Amino acid sequence: MMVTNAVLGGIADTVAQTITSVQQRANRKQGSGTRDDPTSIEIQDLSKKDSRGDVYPDPRALATPFDFERLTRFMAYGFAMAPITFKWFGFLSRAFPMTKTSAFVPALKRVVVDQIAFAPVSVALFFSVMTVAEGGGRRAVALKLKDMYLPTLKANYMVWPAVQIINFRLMPVQFQLPFVSTIGIAWTAYLSLSNASEDDTLQHQNIAPYSSNIRLE
């Protein structure tokens, strides 16, 4: 399950990076600035020579490179979180056992406890761990949580209660984590995009996401 969770986390981040790359390519095709902006270069002009005979870079050279370090962080996080999540699901199954005559109510109780106790902690843990893994300090963690925690938690409550009802109601304990991880590919991709977009925001504000006392020039 740890390996499976790591692989699924890697797939999710690959999807997120692919989405980002496609979006950036589309933006470049439309032009990154207005025609009055002397610093903007239209994508169709990149292969032309200038007055000195120099060739502009090939458009493919401007594509965002795949971030293997980011991929490794997501895989490592998924690997490390698998035992914690599995133990949590085991606790819920013992605390709220389901029987043939009573299944829906215990499953509903598991969902309520999971979303009240575990979901807020897991969202905070994700952004904190990822920021620290990127080299950020306490200030970077605080800024990330300030900007991303509540929106992500709200999104969580729109998605996961329904998923967990199915998970706790129909899935045996040994299959609950793989089921959640598989459904969670889209969710993890969303987290990956959110985490990366917040890092870009910090860079644009001259706040280093990787250090609490280093400014990006």
Short account of what is shown:
By secondary structure, the protein is mostly helical. Helix content is 70%, strand content 0%.
Describe this entry's structure for a reader.
This protein has a domain of 150 residues. The chain has 217 residues and is mostly helical. It starts with a helix and ends in a 13-residue tail after the last helix. Helix 1 packs across helix 2. The C terminus is likely disordered. It is built from five helices and no strands. Keywords: Membrane, Transmembrane, Transmembrane helix. Its main location: membrane. It is found in: Membrane. It is a multi-pass membrane protein. Belongs to the peroxisomal membrane protein PXMP2/4 family.
Task: Characterize the biggest β-sheet.
Answer: none
The CA-CA distance between the termini, in Å, is: 43 Å
What is the N-to-C succession of helices and strands?
Answer: HHHHH
Mean pLDDT: 79
Helical proportion, percent range? 55-70%
Write down how many β-strands occur, each being a DSSP E stretch of 2 or more residues.
0
Briefly note the structural class of the backbone: mainly alpha
What percent of residues are in strands?
Answer: under 5%
Tell me, briefly, the overall form.
elongated
How many helical elements? 5
Contiguous runs where pLDDT drops below 50 for at least 5 residues: 34-50, 206-217
